[in-house]
Design goal:
Length: 255
Amino acid sequence: MKIYKAYAKVNTFLKITGLRGDYHEIISRFMRVDDLYDELSFEKKDTPDFKIIGSFSCTTEQNTIYKAYNELLEYTKSESLDKLMQTYAVKVDKNIPAFAGLGGGSSDAATYLKMCNEVLHLNLSIKELAEIGLKVGADVPFFIYGYDSANVSGIGEIVEPFDEPLLKFDVYTPNIEISTPKVYKSYRDNFFNPINSTELHKLKNATSIEVLESYSPEEANDLFNPALKEYPKLKKHQKDEYYFSGSGSSFFRVI
Ligand SMILES: C[C@@](CO)(OP(=O)(O)O)[C@H](O)COP(=O)(O)OP(=O)(O)OC[C@H]1O[C@@H](n2ccc(N)nc2=O)[C@H](O)[C@@H]1O
Ligand SMILES: Nc1ncnc2c1ncn2[C@@H]1O[C@H](COP(=O)(O)OP(=O)(O)O)[C@@H](O)[C@H]1O
């Protein structure tokens, strides 16, 4: 059976531009991490119930892959999708740490959607897959598009490729389970200060290296200070030259 790679990402910068209901609008540079990925495949099974094989800390119902299956079924009403998941389990060799700001769950969901589209010849466009994926999580569209580097805005649904070399990262993930909603809420309650349009324009056009060379870790990621406030233990894991990815807990350095 074919093996599909679900890559991790880092946010080389992440700035808040405003609010949208309970969500925050962002401008963020997402970059694929080339040497960190989960491996997904379909594996024949004996019982008809939906099955994910792999080591997860959540239930099947909470798994982003199961959520992606439900959204895809809702959108396509495909009987062949139903049949596929009665006959095959989704096997996941999990390498991306969870609660890490590396988008592991989102990347698995995106990869699963692309696998189904390919295997079942659903003929869904990338745009349609990104729309379905957005219902599973804000990070999913980036992984659907599959760019090496992209400016991601809105709440995650606007994905524009950015032309720059793919960087190599040393990623370090402290064993701290960070809640993304808790970090965003802390930003809203304690640090709310959306960037202006001049800075937005500058960031959108700067390379990741240019941003990392001119911004401190706190400046490059608006969620770093809120994460430090909510999870003070993070502080002792902060090392020189390491930046914070998404809502954490991972730090990364360009190598
Ligand atoms: C912070 C980022 C940066 O890439 O990712 P992670 O660090 O979690 O990987 C994303 O914005 C997270 O994306 P994701 O983890 O997919 O978020 P979702 O599951 O859609 O949303 C979880 C919760 O986070 C908050 N949320 C999420 C995205 C966003 N733009 N604004 C928000 O306020 C909302 O409270 C939402 O209910
Ligand atoms: N396929 C999946 N892989 C990893 N975690 C998942 C998955 N599906 C659901 N989760 C749950 O999502 C949360 C963390 O999501 P994850 O994408 O790994 O982290 P982050 O959003 O910080 O990058 C945890 O509650 C985890 O149990």
